[in-house]
Structures are given as structure tokens and as C-alpha cells.
Amino acid sequence: MWRLTQRLRPHINSTRWMIRNFRSGEPTGLYGFDHLKTANGFHRFVADAIERSGELVSYISGMPSSPEIIKAMDEISDTVCSVVDSAELCRQTHPDREFVEAAHKAAMEMNDYLHHLNTNHTLYAAVKKAEQDSNLLTKEASRTAHHLRMDFERGGIHLDPEKLDKVNNLTTNIFQLCCEFSENIAEDPGHVDIFPGSRIPRHLHQLLNPIYRSTSGGLRGSKRSVHSSKEKGFRITTDLRTLSSILQWTSDEEVRKMVYIQGNSVPHANHGVLEKLIASRHELAHMMGCKSYADFMVEPNLAKSPKVVTSFLQELSKTVKPKADEEYIAIRDFKREKCGNISAELEPWDETYYTSMMKSSVNDVDTAVVASYFPLPQCIEGLKVLVESLFGATFHTFPLAPGESWHPDVLKMSLHHPDEGDLGYLYLDLYSRKGKYPGCASFAIKGGRRISETEYQLPVLALVCNFSRARDSSVVKLNHSDVEVLFHEFGHALHSLLSRTEYQHFSGTRVALDLAEMPSNLFEYYAWDYRLLKRFARHYSTGETIPKKLVNSLQGARNMFAATELQRQVFYALIDQMLFGEQPETARDVSQLVAELKREHTSWNHVEGTHWHIRFSHLLNYGAGYYSYLYAKCFASTIWQSICEEDPLSLSTGTLLREKFFKHGGAKAPAELLMDLAGKEIISVHGEGIIPATTCLLNELRL
């Protein structure tokens, strides 16, 4: 097959859009892009992407063959995504403010250019022509043509110019509101000042900033009756990670209460941002002929309709409620026993503290002891053991070229197969630092795609976490929950690294939203399985392998409050559906709606004055799609029990996962992928959509 780039003879060399091989150590820019040697390089990066895309648009306007139309369209997508994805990773992780601001500007410019592409009637006509010529296309190319046409129509290309202009303005406004929502969370995490400092457990002091205040008092035997001294306290910044630690370890209930209320009441600015976001998304959906933004977002996915989603969630809520109520009573009674007050009520700020204590006491689990077996370097070794066992591939540390990295902590790994060569590249940015994206996520940089019969563009991505360094130790030790998060994100990474789609449009995680979280949930199981843990979990100082008894205790604690956790996820998903569902004629109080949903669908009180949802960032990227996490948990449980559990580390298990699922990315219909892998019982038709089988998950959680 001849290469489109050769026929076009562009003055932009197409290899500039590929990740280069840096074995020679030659200087480059961020992520291997020569453009990004400096922050100003983002300007040229954008300009070259627009110029290259313009050449491809001109080529497509000549109406070449349908296969070439799809190939050129995919190259446009790849070129634009290279800039957009790189800018997003830079915005979230780069320590240099100049780079962050340049990346933000680049993202805005590319967002505007995307509107230009998405409203190009020549491209739309070419894609429709290609779809009609499906007999001339491969199955994947035909599916790509169909999805491209749908993308154009979901962008409003069929609307009259005035309405289309309005849609474009709304889309830009929504993007800006999402950025503002995230920035507010980062800039206003809230804080609480606690005196004296002894109210905070000593091992948490490293997370906090010491503060001092003057105190006055009598001094016996002194000529002066009053003296001043400094009392030490701590300022607790109520970001999510610190908030979680304080709620888990602090015995002082008043401190927990203060921190919980503050952490769930900021940033205040997001009240207005969220209301505008809801209104803008609803207006956009209405202009696209949908009743709600939820209708607009759910329709392309397995569920097809918000009615299907809501029915699934409400049924799950009913199923889990009796057990969740039992767990609530057990926690309340435990609190009463511990505090010696038979009438004490259980409050939301008590949950983490008492459930952690109950898990430790019943299962003899000391979290500090557990963490000693999970030094971060050994956990990375665990990821290597896993891919070698399952896929016969190895992770190698790959030398970073000068200018390629954004921080000294960053590592680069290549996934190598003995028969196939390198499969892709993975950056690891695992330590927390000021100004960095606060959560854990997998960021795409380049998607995989076929360039010619002999050349394949390898996927490149970054796995970003926020593991804390202890001030009193050079060894970073992970809590087991952190290990689970690492394996979760690694599942996303493998989805991208192992896919071998012809087009980057379907590379890796570019699948239906309610399927995207399945691999990550599946790989969480490996963080609990002793057959893998014994091969990498070793004590940081003695080298002792983690005892089987300790892992059994961890597993015993795992599902002690499974109903409570599942109920919480259902509640989150229902909030998401209600906020972006059909809107009432009169304005509603969002905080009141959230409070009512909590009372109806959880066993816990709502604390008046708290507004947890204003820092729920999943409302941005997963707007009307948070239910997909529950779909994924159901799919993953079925796949684990039917395929992996018996022999989770065998090459045959890995081959099945790779051949039936991973390598296809989104190039096959999601229902087809699931049934090919685990049989038709994994899903069921519900009305106009598809829901997952829940039996395996409910049995696993003893519900």
C-alpha cells in the first residue's frame, strides 16, 4: 500500500508526528516531539498541525478512493490528537508554569480548530461517500467511516449555519467551564487550622504544615504576671488525599468533623460553574434534538438510553440496601462500644475511621505492616512480572533523551515482545508534587495506527499517580489501596499498549464509554491475588516475601463493607444522571437534589451545609457517564471468574485476553467484544439498550 504522505508531498515531514527512537540520546522535546523543546514550541506545534491537517483536507476534497479518504481522515485525527493530548498531559503535570500556560493556550486553539474541522461539509460528504462504499472497505475501515459520520452529526453539521455557530460557541463554553471547575479545585482545596498539634496523629505530621499562635498565661515565680509563648498547631489542607488520611487516622472526632465539613464545602466558586455547565450541556443537547444531555451522551454506548441506565442503577440500589443498612448498624454499634456512649449517632466523618478500625481488629491487618511489603520499586516489578506471565512481553527501562521528560522523577518504559519487537512506550510519573494533577490517571500521547504494510505507529502514553514520599524514609511504601489504584491505571495502559488497530480512531481505550473501565477494573483483581503478590511483594528492609496469612487477612477485610461501597458508587452515578438528565421548567437547587438522593439511596446522613458535588471532577469527563464504572465492575467480575481466576498468570489466559479483547481496541462493537471473550451471558438486553449481568459481582460481594 502506498503512503498517503508520500503522494501528498507535504513540506511537513510526516515522521515529525511520530515518536522517535532515542537510543542515540539525541536531544528532543517533551514526549519526543521536536516542537516542544521550549514552551513557545506549542505555538509551532499547533501551527504545523493545522497546516498538515489543511493539506489532508485539500487531498480529501478531491474525493480519492474510499479507503484513502478514511486513511487521510485518521491522519487528521492523529495529527490533531497529538497536540491536544500532549497539551492536556502538560497542563496537568508540568512543573513549569510557562509550559502549563502555553499548553492551555494550545488546547484552546486546537479546540477552535476542531470546530472548524467538525463543521467542514466537504469532509462530511467524503465520509458519507466512504460509508456508502462499505463493500470497498475492510470491516474496521467501514466501522471507522460510520463512526466518523456519526461524530460529524453529533457535532451539529446538519444544522443551519446560525444554529451550528451556536453549537460551536456552546462547545467552547463547556470546555472553558470544565477547565475552570478543575482549576478551582486545585486553587481552593480549603484548610482547617488545628491547635494543639497533638490532636493530629504523629505519622500524619509530614502531610501538614506547622503553624504557631501566641498564648498568654501566668508564670509562677516571675516578676511578670503574664508571658507569651508559641503554641504549635497544624494547617490541614483539605485536598482529597490529605482529607482521606485525616478521616482514617484521627481519633479526635471534632477534628474529623471540621475537616470533613470544610473538605466537602469547597471550592465555593464551583456552585456557579456547575450550574452553568449543566445549563450549557442541556442547551447543547436540546439543539441536537435530544431531551437531555444524558440522552445525548448515553445513546452511542451500550446502554443506549438514560432510562436503561437509571433502571439498572435503581435496581442495584434496591438490591444492595438491606446489606448496606446492616453494615451501617454494625459500624454505629462499634462506635458506641468504642466511645462508651450507647446513644452515640454515626456521622459521615466517622465512616473511614471506624471501618478501618473494624477491618484491622477483625482481620488483624496493620496498614503500616502491609505497606512495608509494597515499596514502589517492587510494585513496578510486579507490573513487569504480570505482563511477562500473561503476554510473554517484558518491560524495559528506556533511556530518556535530553528534553523528553518534564520532571526528574519520570521513568520511561518500553513494552517489548520477543517475536513482535516493541509494542509501545509508557512514561511513569508516580510521585505527588505541588501543582500536579491530584489524582491517578492514564494520559494518551499517541494512539497506535497502521502507517503502511511494514510500518506501525506505536502507542505512547503516561501513567500518572500521586504517591507520597515519607519525610523520614527514602523508600516510598504504598498502602494496599494505592497498589490497587496502580494496577487499575495499569489496566488502562495495557489496553492502549496491546491494541493493534488499523486506525488510531479506535486505538486502545477509544471504545464505548461504558466499556472503557473494564480492563482497569479487571486488573485490580491481580492486586489481591496471592499467586502474583508472592512474586513481587517483599519487605522493604528484609526482603521477606509477603506472608500468605497477611494476604488472607487483607482479602477478609476487602469485602467487609462491600455493600456500603457499592451503594456509594450507585449514589454517585445517580447524581450524574439526575444533574444531566431532563431539566425541570423552574430552577432547582442542585445541593438539595444531591442531599435528597443521598437520603434515598444511601444509609448515611447528609450533613447540612456540605456540597460534596462541587469537587466531583468526574462530572466533567464522565458527564452522564459515571454509571460506566458500575458496568465495568460487573463485566470485570464476570470475566475474572469465567476466564482468569482459575489460572490468572498463564500465557493461555493472557493470549485469550489479548486476542479476544485488547488488540481490537474499539474496532469491534462492544457487545461483540464482550461476548467473544466471555460468552453471551455477560450481557442482557434491557429495553432498547444493554446492561451487564450482575450475578458474578453480587456473589463475589456476598450480596
From TrEMBL:
Transmembrane regions listed in the UniProt entry: none
Cofactor(s), names only, from the UniProt record: Zn(2+)
Keyword RNA-binding: no
Domain of life: Eukaryota
Protein name: Peptidase M3A/M3B catalytic domain-containing protein
Cofactor mode of binding and number, as noted: Binds 1 zinc ion.
Annotated ranges, domain Peptidase M3A/M3B catalytic: 250-681
Cellular localization per UniProt: Mitochondrion
Gene3D superfamilies in the cross-refs: Collagenase (Catalytic Domain), Neurolysin, domain 3
GO MF term (any one): metalloendopeptidase activity
GO biological process, one term: proteolysis
Upper taxonomic lineage: Eukaryota, Viridiplantae, Streptophyta, Embryophyta, Tracheophyta
GO cellular component: mitochondrion
